[in-house]
């Protein structure tokens, strides 16, 4: 019943007649009969929009872990931050939503300028001069960062801190099969990476070093050791940074990073079960021509008015094909526009404010949780908006129990770090109140008892 | 009395309330958000938490603390709204009019899908929540996967890839894993010269060498050329069908047989799936792997360049290699769960940070359910009808390099216009904007000179097609009358006119801070 | 092969995908929706109900059945979207830029209020549901009423009136009811000549005779003139304070005393409440009745001409006459209800079909809560500051008929420009559009020649004010340089240029069907 | 804390200095000290948007009668119709929402044209040539219709059918005090108006006759008797018509009405606890210059392009002041735009479809409800999407019980018609499914037992 096709039967008949055809099937005469589908698709017939909406709502109804049902203390790269109505209203404008890659800049200044502003904001957050117009998500940015580093150094060995998100590490492993990179995982000790002394050059020496800031356990690592390591080995320093933490923390660039990669979901994108999110990518000028993905630059039009356009197209796959710096084509522009709006809403002071509020909530939550009998800190390193604890019971079990009390308690560290089964990663954003945290701690005390 | 010599308040920052950049009122440029910034402004507001205001110094050790805040911009909510609303007025979109951008399937995107993507029960779910608490999402994903398999004739699919290119790379890694499992190491992947640029780029990232085969004079894969490069070092072929010329590869059965014969796999670039929904299925054509651009075929809007979703479906023998974890049906277990996550035994691993662009996937499923099986077939029929109508209607005004029945899109060429009058495809494209239409894709596929690739999609009415055709006809006529120079001056009415792309690349200004 | 002589499909209806009416692409008019109509198109879809499809003939008796459907239009969802999206691009709004339309308080409307108005818990409630099931709404309304009373210094309020004028009429009926309760029949209501046109219109509908008093040379009520018309046939006076010149009626205490002395009531037109929030309260000035334009002061957006909300607050002695039913606090009753509906003993009755423009009321409360008591006062301060700054800044370039401290708005005049160059206020207003600003209110209040009434509101920044002032200055200079004829040609850049209003009234075309 | 004021303290100081002032208070020097507020408003300080949103959600949470909680069978002039996403998206565009009365047509063609289209649609639905650009709601349209009729005939007696919505009748009574109209209520008998023979002219004779179609009890009355009555008495025939019913029913104009008034909520506006709704008003050309409210007309600009403008301004209060045809200024334009969008979505066939679906659901519901022991029809007249029944218990009680079963059962007729306490008015729109209606009937059977 549902359809978005305007044509009436008369019109279809008229158009077919114009083509000298007498049926729709004839349009597909070029398709060999042998491969043609001989029956209807085994799918239900179309129904009304309200039916479908009801069905989608019923899917939603079966999700217990909605942040309007369970108070969210889970993080691990996806955070329950404030998304104001104004961000939704602006980023949701149909001109942004229903356009595509700005191939015709004359009628795409809206998206182009918004992306230009996004690039500027990301570059400033990264403390690096250049940012691209977005990648798929944090993990794919990490993969691209490693690819850039390997290309720049010509060395395929990649040292990856165990403090990098486990899913990112899994992705690095997946894609390394194609690129041939050798991924070496460098373990965490007491919450921070224990960098080996290792080789100082040559083929065994890393071409890329990748570290998280804060790392997956929420810990802040001293990145000057990484810079020193890179200086020594000639590796590129790639930092997987939480861009929201930049409200308080030193930037990747400030620590001396060559490349920053990160997850931009924190800037106005809903949890959404993990997507679409937003891969951030920034680098030093030296690597400009290796930058993956799209880049918007400023220029002028024939009347000398400021105008924006996608530039350095020669890096991209539609021109350089197999020699392109990456295969990314469709990216996450709408999320980049969203981030630009959200960052505009936060502004200079708001980014500090939100990071500070997260840090305070986390401090408050950490104190409350560590006051519980049998709950101990996973590590002592400083944290920002997330921390890991060791529970007296398996974390999975505790998470189930906490749901009954109305909380998404956090993320089990099972699989992420050695012996993680009793580890729980807990995040507290600026949306968490003292009352919520108090209730959480009370419930947790019961759940672990 | 005020002192007459007092100057007005000196203020920094551009005037946010001045709306001269909206095309409604004028033709100036919109300042950047940074130019509206004024120290001390703000738009943000947060909830009251009752959490003690511990000083920052006590929260973050000195070596980690930044010394100055990141300078984002300081604007009022009012100026923020004005700025982005004006920017939106400087942007063409499907919602404003026809967007016949070939290979991009810029069809109408039903608003109901926006509602779906905003449902609290879907949008508010944390991706790391256990399966027991996300049964709705898992059910949705499994239903979508099953639907896509039915549409493509494949056995199973991964929903993880975030876009078409990500799907391609995933598919190539599947190809590699499969060959390796057969104990075979192969190095080459064949790609027709008409292929989209992501295909060769993905092949490279997949660790393969690209072998290009030319198209023949029908615009299809040259069978002889193909045969000449087939050997047991060929891992497979990546084929777009209908190809980027909008043509159906009629020899598909022979191609499949030939590639399979040397032990290669067939990869289907399904960006153009819109053309064949319910008519012919990649699985039935003998393909082993297919990625789909849901953001094209299944009307999940393109967002100014993304997000997309590029699920990959595979035939039975490749299922064990799919990325994981995958949402799968189980029985109803003791906590009442019907779905869980499972990683296939020989999985190539994870290709997305979480589970794919899930809200895009939800939109796609909603779109499919509204249309239904019957509706999907009708989409293909009308998409193909529209494209052929345009082809037929314009074959006097423009060159049609391969003037035979096309599928969902048609590639015209301005070759003669260029030869005769020096008017290029680009000039046609720019001039068309003034007629109220977005431009077609130009200069792609690379194998056609002065290509103008038109994909009307099924949601444009015959009236719109007629108007588009007339506009293109009259532009062709105008090209002859007015000549190259006059044509190159267009567009005249858009917010900016032709932009200096060379300068953008030469004097690179990738951020506001790079302005001099 | 297609027959070469076959014409393209003949189709009725305009091409929905042709976007030449969006100012982004061109300057043509947008066809009406009716012109996009094509027989057989549709956009609607409904849910599957499982209800038997009884034939219409069995449902509706023949004498009631229409013989042909109402011809609305037949369009696709795609064309519907394109049409209204393009129309929206042909419309200026606060979200695009400054809108200093005097007396209308076109301030920035926070987006959070749109979210509030869409909350399922508020938007999905049937107005006839019993109080026991609508406690949230009743609590909200009571809280708003109490807040408005605190802001105005009154005892109670009715939230029913749908806009300012509805509030006025309600207030006048309250006035009448009160006098009648005193056993007194009065026939006259006094209105200053600067008053908004709705005041006299409402007075007439209230069954009173309008007595106009002139303004003095300060722009305020002429006290002598007022005293000369005061007698015991005067039911009351309707006063706007600050008045429509943006001036505060300084003699308000004397006016109140004088009117009360003859037994009259004081009615406060609170459309301009923005100027005095937290600074001075109508109740404290001696007013008995006030209506408020929530859609102005409390940022509930104006919707292209409405909806609004015009609650009326009254002093203690008028409470028993308020319209009913009213939401009121009770104790917690046996079903747990804390609020109920009650009709005041001597109520004038109902003035709205239901409970007022409730979703507008919810927006207003949200706005008030975000701002808080402190924020409301700041709104008045900055609104007044902005207006005075504009006044001071422009008093060389324009006449300022009453050049003394103003409140939230200032009335300039183009009198000299007209006298010297024949350039009218209207010309200034139209020319200003091209500078990126909406025009001020022109030719109102009626007592000022060539009036240009500017209300910047508090949400426009100093930078925007400066830009506005410069634009107005340069236009004044231009008027002298270029003269009347050149100025009358503007605007040049807008989607349409000056429209023939005389023709619209002469050859009336109030519907598409009246086109000839 | 919340504020939408951009000015920084420095800027405020600078602006004050420019004015020669040293404090904000001095701006209000003109306000006599005696009347100035000497303390702060006794209101809470401002808070963050999220706090306010939470509070508004909590108000919403206390409303049991939300249509996402109780299945809605209430009508009585406010109906639970489908509002598709597309209507919300288009009517919610900020250009429509944040503009005001189109005083400058050059930059207001969007609203003007949408209203012109709305007028056309309403006129067609009414079967009358002219419609205005909206009034507040159905009741205020009725008041304005009566005012127009009295002005046109010069006779102040108004005959109002008891089948007119009781709230409309209350409003007519309220406003008649000012205008001096004599409202005579003509009773319903067996669900239809029992028009008296009464006087045939002179002062006692009605200047206006007002009748509902369908009437408040959902019944369809034969309006030819009203036309005859008006012909005989010289009264204006004003029909309060349900515009959605026009999908199946004869139009007011077709029955010979001079004026149609109606409630436009049914076209895309949410229940919203009763507002903002949309007053519809259409009339014959003879009364054009008495039309209340705003009117948009078509014209051309100086380049001869089609353009729209508000016209016949001389009728309006801003020009004619006390002689204006009504005092309406701000009206319900956004709801008019919404109705234009929704009607565009429905289109010619959709209006028929929705009315037919309502009629079918109502027939199905009526059959099911009347099968319940002790429940009897209130009247036998034909109905469309609403019907009244007599219950064996007080309706108020039944409505409370039905809420426990998950239904908003309808509206009690207490106060609306004589002996209405046991009367229940039940509406079934196109959104009601057979399953819902079956469950409703089952629950009702229990509730009345
Ligand atoms: C034929 C073809 N293949 C592959 C792609 C790549 O898809 P995506 O842009 O989603 O990565 C596209 C679209 O850009 C395409 O048109
Ligand atoms: C001073 C004044 N009084 C009364 C009104 C009438 O209010 P409304 O338009 O809401 O009916 C207005 C606004 O139009 C006004 O500015």
Q: What is the overall silhouette of chain A?
A: globular
Secondary structural class of chain B: alpha/beta
**Largest interface, C-beta within 8 A:** C-D, 217 and 214 residues
The residue-averaged pLDDT of chain B reads 95
CATH architecture assignment name of the largest domain in chain A: 3-Layer(aba) Sandwich
* N- to C-terminal distance of chain A: 56 Å
Describe the structure.
- The complex is a heterotetramer, with two copies of chain A (449 residues) and two copies of chain B (516 residues).
- With 449 residues, chain A is an alpha/beta fold.
- Chain A has three domains: 10-47, no CATH class; 71-82 and 347-448, Aspartate Aminotransferase, domain 1, CATH 3.90.1150; 85-342, Aspartate Aminotransferase, domain 2, CATH 3.40.640.
- In chain A, 35% of the residues lie in helices and 15% in strands.
- Chain A has twelve helices and 17 strands.
- Chain A has helices at 9-18, 49-61, 85-91, 94-97, 109-126, 138-153, 166-179, 224-233, 317-320, 333-370, 395-404, 434-448; strands spanning 71-72, 130-131, 157-161, 182-186, 188-189, 192-193, 208-213, 236-241, 259-263, 279-283, 296-300, 306-310, 376-377, 386-390, 407-408, 411-412, 423-427.
- In chain A, the strands form five sheets. In chain A, strands 2-10-9-8-7-3-4 form a seven-stranded mixed beta sheet, with helices on both faces. Chain A has a four-stranded antiparallel beta sheet with strand order 13-14-17-16, covered by helices on one side. In chain A, strands 1-15 form a two-stranded parallel ribbon.
- In chain A, a hairpin with a 2-residue loop joins β5 and β6.
- In chain A, α3 (85-91) runs antiparallel to α10 (333-370), α5 (109-126) packs parallel to α10 (333-370) and α10 packs across α12.
- The longest helix of chain A has 38 residues, at 333-370.
- Chain A is globular.
- The mean pLDDT of chain A is 96.
- Chain B is an alpha/beta fold and 516 residues long.
- Chain B folds into two domains: 115-368, Type I PLP-dependent aspartate aminotransferase-like (Major domain) (Aspartate Aminotransferase, domain 2, 3-Layer(aba) Sandwich), CATH 3.40.640; 379-502, Aspartate Aminotransferase, domain 1 (Alpha-Beta Complex).
- Chain B has helices spanning 33-36, 56-59, 77-89, 111-118, 120-123, 135-152, 164-181, 198-205, 223-229, 252-261, 294-297, 358-394, 415-421, 425-433, 462-488, 501-506, and strands at 156-158, 188-192, 209-213, 234-240, 265-270, 289-292, 312-314, 326-329, 339-342, 410-413, 441-442, 451-454.
- In chain B, α14 (425-433) packs across α15.
- The longest helix of chain B is centred in the last third of the chain and has 37 residues, at 358-394.
- Chain B is globular, with a radius of gyration of 27 Å.
- Chain B starts with 32 loop residues before the first helix and ends in a 10-residue tail after the last helix.
- The chains are: A alpha/beta (449), B alpha/beta (516).
- One pyridoxal-5'-phosphate is lined by residues 103, 163-165, 196, 198, 240, 244, 269, 271-272, 293, 308, 310 of chain C.
